[in-house]
Specification:
The complex is a heterodimer of chains A (about 290) and B (about 600). With about 290 residues, chain A is an all-alpha fold. Chain A has one domain. The longest helix of chain A is centred in the first third of the chain and has 29 residues. In chain A, about 75% of the residues lie in helices and about 0% in strands. Chain A has a two-stranded antiparallel ribbon with strand order 1-2. Among the domains of chain B are: about 230 residues, no CATH class; about 160 residues, 3-Layer(aba) Sandwich (Rossmann fold), CATH 3.40.50.300. Helix content of chain B is about 60%, strand content about 10%. Chain B is elongated and about 90 Å long. Chain B starts with a helix and ends in a 10-residue tail after the last helix. Classes of the chains: A mainly alpha (about 290), B alpha/beta (about 600). At the A-B interface, helix 4, helix 9 and helix 11 of A face helix 6, helix 12 and helix 14 of B.
Amino acid sequence: MSAIQLTANGLALGASYALVALGFVLIVNATGAVNFAQGDLAVAGGFLTVALAGAMNLPGGVLLPIAMAAMAGFGVVFAYLAYFPLRRQPPATVFISTIALGIVLENGANGLFGAAPRLGPPLLPGGPVELSGLVLPRQSLAIVAVTCVAIAGLHLVLMHTQFGRRLRATAQDAEMARAVGIPVGVMIAWTFALATGLAGAAGMLLSNQFFVAPGDGTNLMLKAYIAVTIGGWGRVWGAVAGALIVAFFETIVAVLLSQSAAEMLLYLAVLGVLGLRPRGLFGETIGRRA
Amino acid sequence: MATAWRRHVARVAAGLNPLYAAGAVFLVVYAQVFANSYDQRVLAIAGIYALLVIGYQFVFGHAGALSLAQAAFFGLGAYVTALLATRLGWPFLVTFPASLGAAAALAALVALPVLRLESHYFALATLAIGQAALAAAVNWESLTGGSVGLGGVPPPSLFGFAIAPGTRMLVLIWGLVAIGGAVAWLLIRGPRGLAIRAAREAPMAAGAVGIDTGRMRFTLFVLGAAYGGGAGALHAHLLGVVSPEVLRLPVMVSCLAMTIIGGRTRVAGAIIGALLLVHLPEWFRFAERYGPLVYGLALLATIVVAPDGLTGAATRLRQFLWPESPPPPPEILPRAVGLFHAPAEIDLKVIELSKQFGGVAAVREVSFALRGGEIIGLIGPNGSGKTTILNLITGTERPDGGKIVLNGEDIAGWNPHRIARRGIGRAFQTPILVESMTALDNVALATHTAVTAGLSYPGRRLAAARAEAASLLGGLEIESSAMQRWAADLPHGVRRRVEIARALAARPRILVLDEPAAGLDEAERNALRTALRDLAAQGMALIVIEHDFHFLSGLASRLICLDAGQVIAQGTVEAVRRDKLVEAAFFGPTAGADGAP
């Protein structure tokens, strides 16, 4: 594999991880709860596009928004099953309810599609692009582009719309948001929809480049968890940077050394980062006020 | 001796829930009469998980730390037993303690860097430890056998008795569950249990009464790991093989789910959670490949119906069916015991104390001295550094310069619990109580009886600690009925006095109070002033932050006025009140002409 291909591959993987991690961050900020099923939701998105591509002959560019919308709708259902009944419980309780739904999703996919990895539809038809003598893998570029658009869109919505301001107000202080008349429950449902939509996009992008199997969710979730934590808990740009770091280990370090050595090094790096910066690479360094 | 033991056993038996005892009898009959060898094996696995979960409750339930490393300790225990038994042929009586010890040692090693991390960072760090252990097990083939693992682990043998899989193995495993459960139950009952809860739910308050929260977290983490190591050892013997599977995430997830489904802090919860979650997949075998899906749905349904665990749901059900009458008011000791004991010699010198926050000098070279029987009033405008000085003296903040010398020993920069143990007690500006405990227990947790609690008779020690607490609360004129209420339900004035009583329970020589009269009505203020004067008359020394000159005038022997971190006046209440600088600090330089606001 050429250096350019490898880099493009790493960026594509990092971009997909970033989408999973961003959904994770949105839910954490809005509810304080860790959604352990975020990876399984991405896998579900992957299988959804596999099924859609099998059922109707549509180009990837059309399938993507359909899959995202469908997954967003499912995100609301997910919230009503795993989060809303437990919203007054400590966060660890929601951790378990999302694990339970993750088990349901994983085994649902296993029952419907079987355990073998499946190939999802491509985003764009055709082979590699040639740009002034460089051969660039088209799918990887498309994945990076789609992710950039999704992140920019998310940024725009969060920072420059009234809806985004309400969403952020809910995330920062739900009590206060309720006091000024923001429908907090509706905002949280929207947050789950957004997060699950992003997971759906990640699932489709990953399923073409790296295949999708029912058991992939846990690994995806772990990678998103690492990305979010070393990036500084609850920070959007930190999560993106964290996702790229994780992908760097899984592609470039893995090729230079070996898959298992890269895995080991990644976890040691995580411990190292937390040893030096207990609140993540981009987390605030000041302590809590007494 | 024998009678003492008999009494001890009787006390333990009296504490057993009849429902759980009936469940245990049912299990024994089922295992012996109805279960075939496969069922017995499933029961054995449930017992192993019960041990793992009892250990995990120490960390997750009692220390309140979401650790994801419990499977790593489980796996380490399994590998240690497998290696020692197959390569060296060592007997169970050596390999089992070795597995326990290895897991505890690993926990102690990683605890120092990891335990200082907060919530999610702690969870991720412990997860990384588990994943690193997994990677090591897969890659270090010469030692661990790689992904194939180690086979041929013999059944354990005790005193020349080979314990074959089946009934004997069940007796061994569940016997260890009973021992482990009893030890855990004794450790977390009584006054020590109160201290553990305080360290978890209100760590600042716990530190202020001398509870070493860091050491407590460390002990609970290591103890939990030892249980995990023991469970892993039994797992290796039962299966006869050890592979990296024991280190994978599903083990950790099962352990966490069992803890939450059963209940986070009850030993019975660990056993029920393990039994249920190990058997659920067996019951859903009829659904074939959708079995795990049904398992997930059942898990979700259980957690929605019983979010505080099945033991929590059982307790609520019992309360609903047979409401318990409120406990009798605690027996109050004579006043002499708690509140009014003569403290030893007191000589506190604060010398040129300084503290910066960023570029702001919050405290600048403040010096004063305090002796037994004195009450110093600390006054000054908002932001003048009063609370920071108290935080420096009690160890909540570390000074940047200067000394705090208590009876010849410089205590500047010590941890809060060490300072508290040297005899400096404190109440916070906003009372910090353990909200899920009664007022009485909030005070009982700080008593000497509680802090030095041994393993023996936790119930009796708890009664003694509560009696001491009741006399302290009574001394501050709190009704017996209020003592039995949850801290969260107490009115503000009572909360303040509960906090002062808690500080007194730790038997301080110096008491440090941050605006104790704020929010109290006139009668409460007068009662508080009388109580504080009594304490000083008995030889205690006090530092009181207060805005109200009137409250201080009948109380303080000396006032220190601060402005912008510096002492601008000291002396008697009257002298400081007339001081021009003080007036300027409070009312602004020009306010003197047109009178007070």
